[in-house]
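Read as chain and fold; for instance:
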Amino acid sequence: MDDERLKGIVEALAGSNVLSYALKAGGVLVLIDQAGRKRRYLPEDYRHLLRKAHKTAKLIEGGTNEQSQ
């Protein structure tokens, strides 16, 4: 997973002031939130954000928005 995509998922889970984060073996996402607490997310916890981030990336890269404006 690329860095921008991972950063977007981390921010969606814990806000933009996360101190640190890492993607571990098995897809476990570990982060240190703004209060210094360690949080652990299994892939099931953020899978819905992964799909959303992928769709957003397609739009940014020049895909089309199929919704009428």
